[in-house]
Design goal:
By secondary structure, the protein is of the alpha+beta class. It is built from eight helices and 14 strands. The chain is globular and about 60 Å long.
Amino acid sequence: MIAMKPKRIDSRANAGSSELALIAHIRRRASQTSRSGLRLGIGDDCALLAPRTGEELAVTTDLCIAGRHFRLDWHPAESVGHRALARGLSDLAAMGARPIAAFLSLGLPRELTVRSGRARPWVEGFLDGLLTLAEANKTPLAGGDLAESPLAFADIALVGAVPLGKALLRFGARPGDLLYVTGTLGGAAAGLARLTKLAGPPQIPPAPPPRIPKNLAELLAPHLYPQPRIARGRWLMHRRLATAALDLSDGLSTDLAHLCEESDVAAEVDSEALPIHPEATLKQALHGGEDYELLFTARPTVRIPRGIAGLPIARIGRIVTPRSGQPAVTLISSQGRRPLKPQGWEHFS
């Protein structure tokens, strides 16, 4: 356990010399992040959290598995750590929650915890990515678990706080509401497609991740280092402008279908209004997933600004009354109307 009782361990020890040394190393590094809302972190049997008066807790978990959510021969270790935390932070953003603490259960093959020649242990890069994003979002790493595993995985639980009764939810959209999205769509899918070509075919044993050329860094950033929209979710929550909201993790077509199902409504999307990433296709914007933008609805009488905290906001459609025999989501373009079927990411499909 990372949140174990304190032991007298030299925290300067090699991160891969033993389980206890790695725990101590993680504890030392985690102690350098912001700790607002955290009374007691790594070092005891449990962490102690202290939400403010009048708040309720929002809790989410996300599992990242090598070969499914990331590949050791494609993704830099820093990207794996960043993405593992970004997924849960995006869930908190979708509810307008303030992050309080993160908990990490980490399973690693031993070779990822020790030096390889002059190279730092893989786990150090993973921690660099995770803790840098944690500090940027004032989210302390408060505990977790650690185990040797034949397969690398990171299971992260995040705790946030939101004013009592004010969380943004997936239900609440009504016919007549307008549909909005933050940022651009399809950038993560476009970045993944380029990364796939850059990495080349699989090798045995697996090759290290490819070096990212400077001219491709910006294109790959939406996939390798997605940015959770915490400030925008908090802005919408405080002003009570959104009637329903969620984050775009599985793709617009799939996530919008979830919102429609939870709110018992249908939706129409204007294809020409979609803020498509400059390097992405319409298909990637509709179905690509992992954009981690916010999709939300608002009453037609509410004025939504063109940008929130420096990020553009686009109106992409409207909520309508569901009708028997009609699709839940319709895509409208210059070629006419067609059903927008969920074609984003779905496990076991």
